[in-house]
Amino acid sequence: MQQRSNHINEIRKINRDKRASDEIVEIAKNVEGSNEDEFDDSIENPENEHFDPLEKAEEYDVNDFPPREVFPEDILDREGRKTDSVSEGAHDVLAPISEYGLEFIAFYKSFRYVNQLPYRGRWGIFIVESLVDDIVMELASDLNMTFQESFLIFLNYLYNHELFHFHTDAASLHVEGKYGKNFYRVAKKRIKTLFIDEWFEESIAEHKGLKKVPGVRLKNRVLTGDSLVQWFVNFVEHSPGAYKLGSLNVKKPGLYKWPNLSGNYGSQRNQKSMSIYDLFIEQLLVEGRFHLNRVIRGRESQEFFYDELNNLFWNQRMLSNKFAYRNCPIYWIKPYRFISASLKSLATISLKEGENFVKKYLAGKDQDEEGKSLRTDHSYYKIDNGEKVKFPNNHLKDLKPFEFTNIRKKAGMTSPEFSKERSSTKKWKHNCPRKESKDPIP
Ligand SMILES: [Zn+2]
Q1: What is the per-residue pLDDT across 392-430, written as a single tens digit (0 to 9) for each?
Q2: Is 180 left (phi over 0), alpha (psi -120 to 50) or beta?
Q3: 361 lies in which domain range?
Q4: Is the peptide bond before 118 cis (omega within 30 degrees of 0)?
Q5: Whether 410 and 272 share a structural domain
Q6: Which pLDDT belongs to residue 347?
Q7: Quick one: 78 and 226 in the same domain?
């Protein structure tokens, strides 16, 4: 376990020198500048219910969420931060992530939009600190790890996910510069209007993040490993749409059938079985209106073009030095109002719901019913796996987060499992009690 933290070295290398990130902004201006008028602003998105932090955050005044700049050394120096009272006020952050994806807690803002809201004048990776703390607490308690170790491992996963968005941005700029045809802005705008199942960039980003979890390996087309790796794989598999594909071998052709996409993507390449990664590149080009036939003539040069893109969008070393990962800034931010509002309804469950969870879902039997007349402020239930669960009696309140975690673990459920079952049983109304009991989590 001790060596795990050594895997986190990349974060230490972030460039403190603002000149490097400013230079990237200048390069982008030069590359994009030539055909600014091609941006397609006509795309409306009336039904978009997806969570887009950039869009949501634009609704608020910039003073609502003052960014707190942080550099890697600051992160790494925080030993044992908040270790005693982390449970208090902790959020069930896993449920919104399973709905909105990892962008609920962190997002990448392109260097192309540096002068737009939110965080005008800055670009890079923005991470909601308090939500990371919530997850780190879950991870530490699920796997009996120190807070710091969980923090470093989780942050590295998150960082590498977001870095892929930077990579896509940078690689696109390379192609735009070379072929004199912009596509990134239009592509991103259009892809946002598609179903979350089709956000293939997120599949690759999750894959890149997962690959940084210590001990991960690829087996039978999926990423796998010890309990730590499984925790992350489980986390990704409970994410929405294309996010959850990140645990698969994204470069394996034909891993999935894409019936409804074959019309949109792949026609340029006329390829029957594409990998998730092929789809990602194809989508950027197609949605970005990068008409291959008009830009590159001849089949052979088109194949060369795809080979070039395959390398460029996958390998960091194919990017020019100016776009080294360390030149992508990271910032901590506070949750803005949309996030705070989403979390409010998902803060730890009420006692009433907790009782339904224990009595209905876990088939809990009230131990006090048998004989004892003395009512205390707690009841004890025996649940389906034989465990005894302590339950407070004041029905007006919510379960305290640590009480909730205790019960959840006695029921043998991880947080993502709890969230998933909670929604599939409609808060313990359907399919109760559960079919099979589970061993408690120590
Ligand atoms: Zn992402």
Answers
A1: 876 666 777 667 878 888 999 877 678 778 878 888 988
A2: left
A3: 348-424
A4: yes
A5: no
A6: 52
A7: yes
Domain count for the chain, please give it. Answer: 2
Between residues 77 and 320, which one has the greater pLDDT?
320
Q: How far is the CA of 241 from the centre of ligand 1 (A)?
A: 12
Say if 356 falls within a structural domain. Answer: yes
Ligand 1 centroid – CA 205 distance (Å) = 6
Query: Of 191, 222, 176, 209, nearest to 11 (Cα)?
Result: 209
Ligand 1 is an ion; its neighbours by CB within 5 Å are: 202, 205
Asked whether residue 354 carries a pLDDT value surpassing 80, the answer given is yes
Q: Which of 284, 309, 341 is the last residue of a domain?
A: 341
Answer for the pair 135, 94: CB distance below 8 angstroms, yes or no.
Answer: yes
Structure confidence by residue, pLDDT tens digits, 301-328:
888 998 999 999 999 999 999 999 989 9
- Return the bridge partners of 111, or none: none
The rounded Å distance from CA 201 to ligand 1 centre is 7
Taking the centre of ligand 1 as the mean of its atom positions, its distance from the CA of residue 204, in whole angstroms, is 9
**Whether residue 291 sits in one domain with residue 251:** yes
If one compares 260 and 384, the residue with the highest pLDDT of the two is: 384
Q: Is residue 74 part of a domain?
A: yes
Three-state secondary-structure class, residue 279: helix
